[in-house]
Amino acid sequence: MKPESSIRARLALFTSAAVGALCMVFSIVLLFAINKMATQNLTKEVTAVGELTAYYVDRGQLVNPLPPIPQDLIRPVQVVAPDGRVVAATKDLQKRPPMAHFTPKSPGRVASAVVCDSVFPAGGCHIVVAQRVYRDGDWTIYSAAPTLPFFVYPGVASILVAGTVVFTGAIAYGARHTVTRSLRPVDAIRAQLDHIRSNNLSHRVPVPVAKDEIHRLARSVNDTLDALERTLEQQRRFCSDASHELRTPITAIRAQMEDALLASEDAGLHRLCDDVLPSVERLQSITSDLLTLTQLDAGVPGVRKPVDLTELITMELKSHHLNGMVVHRLAPGVMVRGDRSRLRQLICNLVQNAQRYASSTVTVTLRRVDRDPEAPGGVVELEVLDDGAGIAAEQRETVFQRFTRLDTARSRDAGGIGLGLPIARQIAESHGGALTIQDSDRGARFVVRLPSHS
């Protein structure tokens, strides 16, 4: 059985079972109410028979066997004298002991009870009503009638049973039909997903017109397919670019090794190492950057500790061989919370990028912004500015795409492979900050904003 058919069957079964149970409860309550009303009416009738007999006792017109009682009111009746003897009774109770032994508490009062297995010829349980009359003593009149079965009217019970069956069946059919119609869009979505899986991700599932849960499901599926298509396209482009970048140093190493083999007498070990080492270093740099990007994409958390950003920038500037003049304006004691090694890589990537394209000077500025509407706790701004040609406004987001180099940066002699800025932005974002390119009078002005840690 298909899963969707199983869902239809389960929903129809559950609905019919619930409706059937409710119908049964309703039928039982209705029959109970009918039984109670009929029992109350029967008790009133039995009481009326006793009251009529009490009238004759009170007037001294008692005869045995009883009546005088109207034919339509004849019930088992006994008249018990003050000494406890049955002095009069209907024909079916002649020469029998009293049908009950309870009495009303005072004359004129009435008491009733259900008495079983008594003096009644038919046996069973009877509703017995006792009434008291005072005439030279307390006389007790007992009148009775057989108790009613729970199904007072068999026809009503039959109608309720038949109605329950028909109503439950109709509800089950209606529920199954409704669920089947409701699940048709789901079947269409599933079929389209199977088609997409076997073909390509350019297709989308049909979205129902009705603004219901299935409509929202189809929208979510299409949004997911959009994101998946973008991700796969990015991965394909990334793999293509990575293969291209890796092929260059590998090809260079191979060529240098082949040259050394062809001219083994002229190629010394030191010369070969000097020729191969730059390509190995480039290969190592690419591999390291790819590993960092993989960790950032996977959301691998770093060690988050308070970091003195002023000290970290100072150490980073001292540890590099800087070409040209570097001007730094660093506010003292600027603290952030994050991974020290990744923050150091962010600083290194920005400074190296600025050095690569600066004409003469790189300016590094660090300041604290205490009042910021987007960050009540304050933010830290790191600005790296070079005096080079700058970046056009329409290309400021392009430089953060992986393996992207602008026209002025396409020469591999500059040392860039197009991963430094994407890594720097992802590091900033993983620390709850942002990396953007902002306007400047000259050159490219990179600004990092991170939450401050007091």
Keywords, separated by commas or semicolons:
7 helices, 454 residues, single chain, Helix Hairpins, 48% helix, Beta-Lactamase, alpha+beta, rod-shaped, 12 strands, Heat Shock Protein 90, 5-stranded antiparallel beta sheet, 5-stranded mixed beta sheet
**Cα radius of gyration in angstroms:** 50 Å
Please give the count of helices.
7
**Total DSSP E strands:** 12
Strand proportion: 15-25%
Order of helices and strands: HEEEEEHHHEHEEHEEHEE
Query: Can you give the mean pLDDT?
Result: 80
CATH C-level category of the largest domain = Alpha Beta
Shape: rod-shaped
Supply the helix-strand structural class: alpha+beta
Q: Span from first to last CA?
A: 63 Å
Please name the CATH topology of the largest domain.
Answer: Heat Shock Protein 90
Question: What's the structural domain tally?
Answer: 3
Q: In the CATH classification, which architecture of the largest domain applies?
A: 2-Layer Sandwich
Query: What low-confidence regions span 5 or more consecutive residues with pLDDT below 50?
Result: 408-414
The main sheet comes to: 5 strands, antiparallel
Helix content: 40-55%
CATH homologous superfamily assignment of the largest domain: Histidine kinase-like ATPase, C-terminal domain
Lateral strand order in the biggest sheet: 2-1-5-4-3
